[in-house]
Specification:
Blueprint (H helix, E strand, L loop, with lengths): L3 H32 L3 H33 L7 E6 L5 H13 L3 E8 L1 H4 L4 H10 L14 H13 L10 H13 L3 E2 L10 E5 L11 H14 L3 E5 L10 H7 L1 H4 L3 E3 L5 H14 L6 E2 L13
Parallel strand pairs: 1-2, 1-4, 4-5, 5-6, 6-7
Antiparallel strand pairs: 2-3
């Protein structure tokens, strides 16, 4: 029987082939072709690109074929909530949902953060809403005074739970979600969101240089939100671990990264599979940084 470790090693090899193919296909090859007058060299490089493209397609086909076997039952009897960040790709969101489904997870719904929240331009208004929406018998962490941490802690208290701990009441959940939505800070579909044990926060590409503290808001949200549950993963595209982007902020701060795993290549089929593997590990208190971006410790979990 093939072990999970062997599957992970296979996935690492597949991902490296994918990374090489993408690197050659964008930028490097274009520069070589554009500057060369040697027709034979151009033809040879194009042949190499075609061959690598074929390998990339084969890698994706392999991932599609192996995913059901690798993920089957991985998150059985676990409930998972999906949180999306402005700029997250719809394709990435759908891909993450697919691997969660293949893992046997129970989908607890989807909540979207808004530009008004991560832009942090209405902190006073947000603070007022958060203070009025704390569930009965719950105390938010006093050290979390920033917008991301504060709303993450509140939403975590409403929608996350550790193990078999009792969730917040339906009345408290409904009132808290409604207040945040009316304030313009989150989006969700009525009657389609419930408490969950685990969470995946999906972000997008590298944040622009003029994005201000948006990456910090997202990273602090993910850390505070995940701390209320049994495990969480912050997943983003290539570039999300650079500059002031959310995964870069998370990985640079030990107080944030010690409780939340990260995956920096969710646009790739490999990255989506790794997201499910990382979430299963997080549920066992095994947190890690995965992908090929700055701060990643491995391409995928080894166990």
């Amino acid at each position: 029987m093939i072990s999970l470790r062997q599957h992970a090693i296979s996935l690492i090899a597949v991902f490296l082939a994918l990374a090489v193919g993408l690197a050659l296909g964008s930028g490097f090859l274009g520069d070589r072709v554009g500057s060369s007058d040697d027709d034979s060299t151009v033809s040879g490089l194009r042949s190499e690109k075609d061959a690598l493209s074929g390998q990339v397609n084969a890698a994706d086909a392999f991932n599609t074929a192996v995913a059901p076997r690798l993920l089957n039952g991985l998150l059985a009897n676990r409930s998972v909530l999906l949180v999306t960040v402005p700029g997250a790709s719809e394709g990435d969101i759908a891909g993450v949902k697919q691997v969660l489904n293949q893992s046997g997870a129970r989908f607890a719904g989807q909540v979207g953060l808004t530009d008004a929240l991560i832009g942090d331009g209405s902190a006073e208004k947000l603070t007022s809403i958060v203070d009025q929406s704390i569930p009965a018998g719950t105390t938010l962490r006093p050290e979390l005074t920033d917008s991301g941490g504060r709303v993450g802690d509140l939403l975590g208290a409403l929608l996350q739970r550790k193990g078999d701990a009792a969730p917040a009441s339906d009345a408290d959940i409904g009132a808290g979600l409604a207040a945040l939505r009316q304030g313009g800070f989150i989006t969700y579909v009525d009657n389609a969101v419930g408490p969950a044990q685990l969470a995946v926060v999906v972000t997008g590409d590298k944040f622009a240089d003029d994005a201000g503290a948006r990456g910090q808001v997202v990273a602090r949200f993910a850390a505070a939100f995940g701390a209320r549950g049994s495990g969480a993963v912050l997943a983003g595209r290539t570039g999300s671990a650079e500059g002031g982007s959310p995964i870069a902020v998370l990985r640079s701060d030990a107080s944030l990264s010690r409780g939340v795993s990260s995956v920096d290549d969710v646009e790739a089929s490999t990255g989506r599979i790794v997201t499910a593997l990382a979430l299963a590990n997080a549920a066992r208190n095994r947190v890690g940084a995965f992908g090929t971006g700055p701060g990643a410790s491995a391409v995928a979990p080894t166990t």
